[in-house]
Amino acid sequence: MRKKASLYNGQRVLIAPEGKQITRRSLLGTSVGAAALADQALAKTFCASTLVTEPGPFFPVKNMNFAADLAGGHNGGAQASGKLLYVYGVVRDGQCQPVQGARVAIWQADAEGHYDHPRAEGHDDLDPNFQYFGEIETSETGFYRFRTIQPKSYVAFGLNRAAHIHFRIAAPGVETMTTEMYFAGAEHDERRMNDVVWSSRPAPARESLIVESMLAVNKSDLGVEAEPGALACRFDIGLT
């Protein structure tokens, strides 16, 4: 059974022989195509548990829909505003084995920084074409994939928040965990520097929550043909 994690527990800091920290961000390199190589490296060299964070104030109060597509736009319907983003990865257990049937849920702000939650600013100005949260089960290889949009940074209760996506993972034999995925890039880096919630996360473990956004051009990684110009982020999740 997984031990109960405190607010910022759940991360094993990994040190290379040279004494440098190894992070998911450094392994992913500079292209979505490199994700497959990074996946092999992770599986063969070490097993890292993902940093646990709190769910935040905007966890959905509505029923969580079992859906992988939050952006819509199919069969002639209108698509959500914003940049299309594919978020995908592999869920592994403490022995680095893929976890089949893990329930992965996400919730996030839309392209204007609004959450579908009664306590959130802008709740009365939501995107009618965007589904603000969804949940899926991992495949036999531990794989998950969501089609969503790039969230925007926002202000909540007077605090600046950098753009991020919340995750909740539930799997047999382990405690349900929540975490967050942040974005790399100069604009996002600057916003994180002014985000007191991000700053409260333990360093250097919090760096493993940052991922690169790349053009979604590698079908073998995503498992689907992405739309021209769509972005993709790989976020592998390690359970303990």
TrEMBL record:
<dbReference type="Pfam" id="PF00775">
    <property type="entry name" value="Dioxygenase_C"/>
</dbReference>
<dbReference type="GO" id="GO:0008199">
    <property type="term" value="F:ferric iron binding"/>
</dbReference>
<dbReference type="GO" id="GO:0016702">
    <property type="term" value="F:oxidoreductase activity, acting on single donors with incorporation of molecular oxygen, incorporation of two atoms of oxygen"/>
</dbReference>
<keyword id="KW-0223">Dioxygenase</keyword>
<feature type="domain" description="Intradiol ring-cleavage dioxygenases">
    <location>
        <begin position="57"/>
        <end position="216"/>
    </location>
</feature>
<dbReference type="InterPro" id="IPR050770">
    <property type="entry name" value="Intradiol_RC_Dioxygenase"/>
</dbReference>
<protein>
    <recommendedName>
        <fullName>Intradiol ring-cleavage dioxygenases domain-containing protein</fullName>
    </recommendedName>
</protein>
<dbReference type="InterPro" id="IPR015889">
    <property type="entry name" value="Intradiol_dOase_core"/>
</dbReference>
<keyword id="KW-0560">Oxidoreductase</keyword>
<dbReference type="InterPro" id="IPR000627">
    <property type="entry name" value="Intradiol_dOase_C"/>
</dbReference>
<comment type="similarity">
    <text>Belongs to the intradiol ring-cleavage dioxygenase family.</text>
</comment>
